[in-house]
Amino acid sequence: VQLQASGGGVVQAGGSLRLSCRTARRVFSSRVMGWYRQIPGKERELVATLSKDGSTTYADSAKGRFTISGDADLNTVHLQMLNLKPEDTGMYYCNIRVISDSWGQGTLVTVSS
After folding, report:
1. If pLDDT is split at 50, 70 and 90, which confidence band does 88 have?
2. Which residue of 27, 38, 78, 88 is surrounded by the most CB atoms within 10 Å?
3. Region class of 87: left (phi > 0), else alpha (psi between -120 and 50), else beta
């Protein structure tokens, strides 16, 4: 599944960004979509996921500041990020789980102090 991500950028601490990700073509059996963050030298880590049944998961660092949402078919997902902190900096990757996982190309988020 090909994913198209957008919305990264440079923002000052306390600012906000909205990341978006959509499938290149309609997928009927999407089960979970989510966002993961990776910084150089570290493993990719979960930020937030949204399941087909509407349930969500968040990293502890994202709780209360980030909100994940998506369409009913789970072909589009958004990540609204508020009160950004320098430690939120990283490459954000969109993920979709159908039978297996697929990843988007990544969008860079830089939060300056």
Report:
1. very high
2. 88
3. alpha
For 96, list phi and psi in degrees, rounded to 5: -130, 140
Long-range contacts for 58-61 (Cβ within 8 Å, ≥24 apart)? 61/87, 61/88
Helix (H, G, I), strand (E, B), or coil: what is residue 87? helix
Question: How many Å apart are CA 106 and CA 52, to the nearest integer?
Answer: 22
Would you report the helix, strand and coil content of the chain in percent, each value rounded to 5? Answer: 5, 55, 45
Percent of the chain with pLDDT over 90: 96
User: What pLDDT is stored for residue 109 in this prediction?
Assistant: 98
Backbone φ, ψ for residue 87 (5° rounding): -75, -5
- Tell me the C-alpha distance between 8 and 47, whole Å: 15
Burial 22-33 (b: 16+ CB within 10 A, else e): bbeeebeebebb
